[in-house]
Design goal:
Elements lengths: L1 E5 L2 E5 L25 E4 L2 H26 L6 H47 L10 E5 L2 E9 L2 E6 L5 H11 L4 E2 L2 E2 L5 E2 L7 E5 L11 H16 L12 E7 L11 E4 L14 E10 L3 E2 L2 E3 L4 E3 L6 E5 L15 E3 L2 E3 L1 E10 L18 H6 L1
Parallel strand pairs: 1-3
Antiparallel strand pairs: 1-2, 4-5, 5-6, 6-17, 7-10, 8-9, 10-11, 11-20, 12-18, 13-17, 13-20, 14-19, 15-16, 15-18
Helix pairs in contact: 1-2, 3-4
């Protein structure tokens, strides 16, 4: 018989014993008497790792001891040490491989579950914004930190932009609105049912910043926040235009509502960053719908109900390793059912400047000039 204690839960395993605990309330005191002949095993991730390491070291020490008994001479010490080192290296490599296989399996399960729950969570109007892991302030504004991983950060910032700034962007966008497009996988873009919205790129006139231009003021705030979170000292030169994106609700009977299906703004494959690509995004909410329109990071189980004048920031790069996010910032714009959702988005790139602007790269992150020479 074994009693396993895992994360505070007790399980008893025995081929001849079934333990029933009917109608036990949380307030009741339960006592288990462990008598002679019963093996108690405490199991958690740390104890499993320690046990595995001890087993590996004991096996390698046994090999080294056998070599020492056969060749008990000082000149053979280096050979015995190499045997021990080789044993440990092979054992560790095997353990890492097993761990990576388990991580990949668990990640696959998590992503499949998230995909199946996508439509349910979007349709649940009672689902509120996910509770933050912690809150802080930036320039007097409340910041809610949802995810804080090296390569995956998700924040919300209250009162990030003003009504005047929203109106300025909307006016600039009005004559330029067109159907939204998505990357086509070959370096270009095309219309798709996965993204139904209107959009317009808004050029920022930086020469008017000192005059108090509203769009320039807003754009400067965007870069200030990005540089507050990430250590790249991002400048505005060569960056993408601000993007005004508008979704319109047509009622619950609409079978093709305005929405944006799950996607990543940059690479989210855990690979090394490619210069000139996107590595952070800020979504700012100017108008919010009465039904629908949440932003959902399904692989992180983060659900954000849009709040007027607030912003959602997320980055998808590890500044230390320069590796990209591995799917935690994949996100979607839930269907807008009733009302209008008007947002302003800034996609932020690393490795662009006035001589190498964002539009000198295709949607695969390759410079057009380099692609032409291949």
């Amino acid at each position: 018989m074994k009693i396993h204690i895992y994360n505070g839960h007790c399980s008893i395993y025995s081929p001849k014993l079934t333990l029933h605990q009917p109608n036990i309330q949380q307030t009741n005191l339960t006592v288990i008497l462990i008598k002679e002949g019963i093996e108690v095993e405490h199991t958690d991730s740390k104890s499993i790792a320690v046990k595995s390491a001890n087993t590996l070291l004991n096996e390698c020490k046994s090999q080294a001891d056998r070599s020492l008994k056969k060749n008990n001479k000082p000149e053979n010490a280096v050979e015995i040490l190499d045997t021990l080192t080789s044993c440990v290296q092979k054992g560790v490599a095997a353990e890492i491989e097993r761990a990576n296989e388990e991580i990949a399996f668990q990640a696959g399960v998590r992503k499949n579950m998230a995909a199946q729950l996508e439509n349910y969570t979007c349709a649940d109007e009672t689902l509120n914004t996910t509770v933050a892991k912690r809150t802080e302030t930036w320039r007097g504004k409340k910041v809610s930190v949802m995810i804080d991983r090296p390569a995956s950060k998700i924040h919300t910032i209250e009162d990030f932009l003003t009504e005047d700034e929203c109106k300025a962007v909307e006016m600039a966008a009005e004559p330029l609105l067109h159907d939204a497009t998505v990357a086509d996988g070959s370096g270009g873009s095309h219309k798709s049912d996965s993204r139904k919205a209107k959009q317009a790129g808004i050029h920022v006139n930086w020469s008017k910043e000192e005059e108090g231009d509203l769009i320039a003021r807003l754009s400067r705030r965007v870069y200030d926040y990005v540089n507050h979170v990430l250590p790249f000292d991002i400048m505005e030169d060569g960056q993408e235009d601000l993007m005004s994106i508008q979704y319109f609700g047509r009622g619950p009977e609409d079978d093709k509502p305005d929405r944006y299906m799950p996607h990543c703004d940059g690479d989210c494959n855990g690979m090394l960053f490619k210069p000139g690509n996107r590595m952070a995004t800020i979504v700012m909410y100017c108008e919010i719908p009465t039904v629908g329109g949440a932003t959902r990071f399904r692989n992180s189980n983060v659900h954000i109900k849009p709040k007027k004048h607030a912003a959602t920031f997320f980055s998808y790069i590890d500044p230390e390793t320069m590796k990209m996010d591995d799917g935690f910032t994949e996100h979607s714009g839930c269907p807008v059912v009733e009302g209008e959702k008007k947002i302003v988005t800034q996609w932020v790139r690393l490795g662009v400047d006035s001589e190498n602007p964002w539009n000198s790269f295709n949607t695969l992150g390759i410079k057009y000039s380099d692609a032409a020479n291949q």
